[in-house]
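As a warm-up, study this chain.
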Amino acid sequence: MPKPAQYRTGSLIYFQGDPADKIYILQTGKVSLVYQDIETGADIRDSVQPGEFFGVKSSLGRYTREENAVALSDTTVMIFTVAEFEAVAMANSRIIMKMLKVFSNQMRRVHKQVSKVMAKEEQPPADGLYNVGEFYLKNKRFTHAKHVFSRYLTFYPSGKNALQATKNLEIAENALSRYGDGKGPGVSISQAGSLSPSASQGASDRTTKSFYDAVSMVSQGKYQEAFLSFKQIVDANVDQEWTAKASFEIGRCMFLLEKFEESLKYYTNMLTQFPKHPDLKEAMFIMGQCNEKIGRKDQAVAFYKKIISMGGDDVTIDKVKRALTALEE
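Now compare it with the structure written out below.
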């Protein structure tokens, strides 16, 4: 029989990449499905309303989850196994029609995105080559950027982007020599198309200092002051690397301040924004600890088991196993 389940505000109902063996119908509350746009990589959020189901496509297709499901408020859902849902759907044509409507809308959106991507691929070769070089430069892949801009200037010395390609080539060479591939401050392209690594470097240096000053505050037990400093780094968003690191530390500060609900909220936002965060398992461990402190044992166990399923043989896994054993005793 279908089972009811309750999730507090900010709880993750399931993660992208999880096995899909359950289907959910929202009874009360709000749920957001967060996934990435295939064209831009930006987050897209679909809202689920009471009476609607979610998690159907991956469960019926028997592949892993394609999105994160986040409870935006205190939420109650009914959880069906695939067999239970199929039995209910076959007995109720309205559910089948609603399911077809949802899938149709999703397919139209995907078709629209693919069409945009295909249209971009049909751009003039010179523009396409220049845009590839710009992409590599923005993502600090300086070796690739250097190669692409060199080829652009070889094949299109009089092209409309030749002047900017020359500037970008110089920036890529300097960054590669100074920082190495994939390292150093991020580079941003202004409306005029020029890059200003010196200004970016200054901002990045200030961010680095602010981050380690805040880390020092944590070691001194000044958790509230540290929280405010880390939050300034996140709000400024000068460099994605430091923004991600500060996002993790914000959640940790809230945990150390024993503000467990706030810690869960910040970590939920972090996992949504940075699904491949290097401290992902540690963040999930702290989320498990928060649930333990609040008295939500089942959710704590779910977090611990999820971490173990991710594999690895590190310190976090050892902590998780000990915490899980203590809870199951």
